[in-house]
Automatic annotation (TrEMBL):
PROSITE patterns: ELO (PS01188). Keywords: Fatty acid biosynthesis, Fatty acid metabolism, Lipid biosynthesis, Lipid metabolism, Membrane, Transferase, Transmembrane, Transmembrane helix. GO terms for molecular function: fatty acid elongase activity. It comes from Anopheles culicifacies. GO terms for biological process: fatty acid elongation, monounsaturated fatty acid; fatty acid elongation, polyunsaturated fatty acid; fatty acid elongation, saturated fatty acid; sphingolipid biosynthetic process; very long-chain fatty acid biosynthetic process. This is Elongation of very long chain fatty acids protein.
Length: 355
């Protein structure tokens, strides 16, 4: 059942509750949890041993000392993409930023490739476990380098906010769906928390596999934006969707196994965010793949999607040349637009976009 709450209200509630809880947990005392257990710290306070102090290695890094700079960025982002931007663009022509977007896509390929290689070099080629990998908080070279790479991944999630801004500047406001904005906002908050408390260990896998998928995805974006003849001729477009489905499945499995390993010292609280989120995204992508590639009656998909069959837009540029105004079943490399999705029922005049 779909809870009929205005999208901006849900986003504001999520945003506020997250940072309010973060402040209560983080406070002004170096990051100790304020819940009481039977263990006392050096200042006499009773500490929650389930949540270690925030990692002191990251405190001096940009945006990492407190949550408030990140909260300000997300607040401005939400106000721009949901209110200020659309109002500002109302009587303006779409910005011609195709060249900028092309080099943005290329930069994303290079950055994500670097993060993937570093995850392999510093983690999984050195014996990182898929089943249980505690965080090494020591100030030695390799653990510190891993923490730094996790921080770079967080900065990439901040950079990803530009995807939505491109939609607004190109007057593709219909692509700025609740799910799209929720996904981008949530990733910044989640990865910030991960870097603040456990930059390394079990959580590395999510950034590792996601970086690989983004290399492939942004390579597609770059090729199609650099040469229009590729827009309808890249045979591997279908397999990007398969890769995304595999990604969500692997991340879900990797975190799910922690439920059955009570001796694993990696924090368990992220499970209650990551598992539902990955299951939700897995369901969306699987439904899209079925509708676009498996169902035997493509005319049904065309009829339900307003005549536009699934295609890959590049940061607001539709590969099929459409203006993005008709309801459609779409996949943009990071999410699904599907008015017919059984996983998320929406008003037929709205899209679901999780770029």
């Amino acid at each position: 059942m779909y809870l009929r709450v205005a999208p901006h209200t849900m986003l504001n509630l999520t945003f506020w509750e997250f940072f309010k809880g973060l402040y209560q947990r983080y406070g002004n005392d170096g990051g100790w949890a304020a819940e009481h257990t039977g263990h006392e710290g050096t200042d006499g306070r009773r500490l929650d041993v389930r949540c270690r102090p925030t990692d002191p290695r990251v405190n001096d890094w940009f945006l990492m000392k407190t949550p408030w700079p990140g909260a300000a960025i997300l607040g401005l982002y939400l106000m721009f993409v949901l209110k200020w931007g659309p109002k500002w663009m109302e009587h303006r022509k779409p910005f011609k930023i195709d060249t900028f977007i092309k080099y943005y896509n290329l930069a994303q390929v290079i950055i994500c490739a670097f993060l993937f290689v570093e995850g392999l070099r510093l983690g999984y080629l050195r014996g990182y476990s898929f089943l249980c990998q505690p965080v090494d908080y020591s100030p030695t070279e390799v653990p510190t380098m891993i923490a730094r790479r996790c921080y770079y991944y967080f900065l990439v999630k901040v950079l990803d906010l530009l995807d939505t801004i491109f939609f607004v500047l190109r007057k593709k406001q219909n692509q700025v769906s609740f799910l799209h904005v929720y996904h981008h906002t949530g990733m910044v908050m989640l990865i910030w928390s991960g870097v603040k408390w456990f930059p390394g260990g079990h959580g590395v896998f999510m950034g590792f596999i996601n970086s690989f998928v983004h290399v492939v995805m942004y390579a597609y974006y770059f090729l199609t934006s650099a040469n229009p003849k590729y827009k309808n001729n890249l045979w591997w477009k279908k397999y990007i969707t398969q890769l995304q489905i595999i990604q969500f499945g692997m991340i879900f499995l990797q975190w799910f196994v922690l439920l059955f390993q009570p001796s694993c010292t990696f924090p368990k609280w992220p499970l209650f965010v990551i598992l539902p989120q990955n299951l939700f995204m897995f369901c969306l992508f699987l439904d899209f793949y079925y509708q676009a590639y498996i169902k035997k009656k493509p005319t049904d998909v065309v009829r339900r999607s307003g005549g536009a069959v699934a295609d890959l837009p590049q940061n607001g540029i539709h590969a099929n040349g459409s203006n993005g105004k008709s309801p459609s079943v779409e996949y943009n490399g990071k999410g699904v637009n599907s008015d017919s999705s059984d996983c998320t029922k929406r008003n037929s005049s709205k899209e679901v976009n999780t770029s």
